[in-house]
From TrEMBL:
Location relative to the cell: Cell membrane; Membrane
Protein name according to UniProt: Cytochrome c oxidase subunit 1
Membrane-topology descriptor: Multi-pass membrane protein
Lineage, highest ranks first: Bacteria, Pseudomonadati, Thermodesulfobacteriota, Desulfuromonadia, Geobacterales
GO CC annotations, alphabetized: plasma membrane
Listed pathway(s): Energy metabolism; oxidative phosphorylation
Segments for region (Disordered): 505-544
GO biological process terms held by the UniProt record: electron transport coupled proton transport; oxidative phosphorylation; respiratory electron transport chain
Function per UniProt: Cytochrome c oxidase is the component of the respiratory chain that catalyzes the reduction of oxygen to water. Subunits 1-3 form the functional core of the enzyme complex. CO I is the catalytic subunit of the enzyme. Electrons originating in cytochrome c are transferred via the copper A center of subunit 2 and heme A of subunit 1 to the bimetallic center formed by heme A3 and copper B.
Transmembrane annotation, as ranges: 35-55, 75-105, 117-135, 155-179, 199-224, 244-267, 279-300, 312-337, 349-369, 389-409, 421-442, 462-485
Organism: Geomesophilobacter sediminis
Length: 544
């Protein structure tokens, strides 16, 4: 790949140069907006994690303890809503996507920078409204199922307005990315020279634009029913409570891939860099992202096998569900093929990438049980589903995010992480995660129901293991954030290309200048030619 001469931080000044609050609040720089999203979403990750620790602490004992069952329901709802709507959905697309899409396609910025800033503040406005609903906190569960959500005294109407604003932010961000990828690629960057992270973000953006309006409309209907008495979901007024579930999952299953596809894109960047091999099956990985996005719209009904849905519909949704495994399997096999006989470096980004592959395989294989009618009926409302969901979302999306944060930290901040501390944190996170969630598969097969504040004493042993595991996991996350904060001030200065990557973001300075590049680069080669020719090495020492 032919690059323009490397930009230096002094060419137009680093994007971090101006430090005033006003300069950040009114910035049109995609990099700064990406950092704002990173800080906001990681803050709510920590808040949701603290709530999860409280839930696990109560489940340490089978009977009444620590707080009331109603408080448990409220905390359960807060944990799910924060983690899904304020962290997992926007964490990679809006943060790392905002920062790196223009850099990786050789552009100065996104195509609509003002719309980009509006999207962020729309997200913040949604957060403020959602926090306002805590005056009368939710106890509905994070799915807000009717008929309870239309009857409860909780501030569901206020919450609906907040979620609508968060959804609007997601739609505008996805639209901005689609147009940017279509119109602002550097000269010579054809579709088949795009980094796979860009392919993943393109598929993600399509889902955001097409699926998110459905959830926005759904919550408007719910608010209208509560305020105006219109009977969309009330059987007494000619409505159907299952209609809410259909609307909710028509959005929420595709949005699973808004969470996971960007993480898969990160893994597709990290694996070849730290294997020093060209990515295996580039086009298959690229097209599989689009296939996952398409199939994701067809399988929402597998969340409703126990809702009273007709048998024929259940069979059709079960049949379609298994098709999702095909493009997902393509990605996993291609990553493993890339690793085969590679010159593998086990730096922290690679450790998280390998962890993603390992945990996501477990999450995917256990999903086969839930996609089959015969077994889903027995394990759907048990802790088996809780374990599967967390192996997919935290083992997948969050580990992918951690891989991306460790991989791009030098580029974003201009500092290197302490690798020794990063590996200690990784080890604790890996052990703690499996101690926390693997026992839940066993609990689910034994019949322990999910969402219950109290449980039979025979399940206590494995619940103790899960709770202790959550403490180990929390310690690992604490060390990781400590490393981030410490390295911002004391980390070694990062070279422009510490990992010897070949995608365009590594051809500019660390941190990048305001304009991204001294000159718009011209692309003439595929971005994964590792091992095909002598690679340009960048001087610089990583902090150990």
């Amino acid at each position: 790949m032919d690059h323009a001469p490397e930009a230096t931080a002094g060419h137009h000044g680093s994007y971090l140069a101006e430090k005033t609050l006003r300069s950040w609040a009114l910035t049109l720089d995609h990099k700064r907006i990406g950092v704002l999203y990173i800080c906001t979403t990681l803050f709510f990750f920590l808040v949701g994690g603290v709530v999860a620790l409280l839930l696990r602490l109560k489940l340490l004992t089978p009977g009444p303890a620590l707080f009331s069952d109603h408080t448990y329901n409220v905390l359960f709802t807060i944990h799910g809503a924060i983690m899904i709507f304020l962290f997992v959905i926007p964490a990679i697309p809006s943060s790392l996507g905002n920062f790196f899409i223009p850099l990786m396609i050789g552009a100065r910025d996104v195509v609509f920078p003002r719309l980009n800033l509006f999207s962020y503040w729309c997200f913040v406005a949604g957060i403020v409204v959602i926090l306002g609903s805590l005056v009368s906190p939710m106890d509905t569960g994070w799915t807000f199922y009717t008929p309870y959500s239309e009857q409860t005294s909780a501030a569901v109407t206020v919450l609906s307005g907040g979620l609508f604003l968060v959804g609007l932010s997601s739609i505008l961000t996805g639209l901005n990315f689609i147009v940017t990828i279509h119109t602002m690629r550097a000269p010579g960057m054809t579709w088949y020279r795009m980094p796979l992270f860009i392919w993943a973000m393109y598929a993600t953006s399509v889902i955001q634009v097409l699926a998110t309006p459905v959830i926005g409309i759904t919550f408007i209907l719910l608010a209208a029913e509560r305020v105006l008495g219109i009977g969309f979901f009330d059987p007494a007024k000619g409505g159907d409570p299952l209609l809410f579930q259909h609307f909710f999952w028509f959005y929420s299953h595709p949005v699973v891939y808004v969470m996971i596809l960007p993480a898969m894109g990160i893994i597709s960047e990290v694996v070849p860099v730290f294997s020093r091999k060209p990515i295996f099956g580039y086009r298959a990985i690229a097209y599989s992202a689009l296939a996952i996005a398409f199939i994701g719209f067809l399988v929402w009904g597998h969340h409703m096998f126990v809702s009273g849905m007709g048998t024929l519909a259940g069979i059709v949704f079960s049949f379609l569900t298994f098709f999702v495994a095909v493009p997902t399997g393509v990605k996993i096999f291609n990553w493993i093929a890339t690793l085969y006989r590679g010159s593998i470096s086990l730096d922290s980004p690679m450790l998280y990438a390998l962890t993603f592959i390992f945990l996501f395989i477990i999450g995917g294989l256990t999903g086969l049980f839930l996609g089959s009618l015969a077994t889903d009926v027995h394990v759907h409302d048990t802790y088996f589903l809780v374990a599967h969901f967390h192996y997919t979302m935290m083992g997948g999306t969050v580990m992918g995010l951690f891989a991306g944060l460790h991989y791009w930290f030098p580029k974003v901040t201009g500092r290197m992480l302490n690798e020794k501390l990063a590996k200690y944190a990784w080890g604790l996170i890996l052990v703690g995660f499996n101690l926390t969630f693997f026992p839940m598969f066993i609990l689910g097969m034994q019949g322990m129901p999910r969402r219950y504040a109290e449980y039979p004493a025979k399940y206590q042993g494995l619940n103790i293991v899960a709770t202790v595991g959550s403490w180990v996991l929390a310690l690992g996350v604490f060390l990781m954030f400590l490393n981030f904060i410490r390295s911002l001030r004391r980390g070694g200065l990062a070279p422009d290309n510490p990992w010897r990557g070949l995608t365009l973001e590594w051809s500019t300075s660390s941190p990048p200048p305001e304009e991204n590049f001294a000159e718009i680069p011209t692309v003439s080669e595929w971005p994964y030619n590792y091992g095909e020719k002598p690679e340009r090495r960048t001087e610089g020492k990583r902090e150990r």
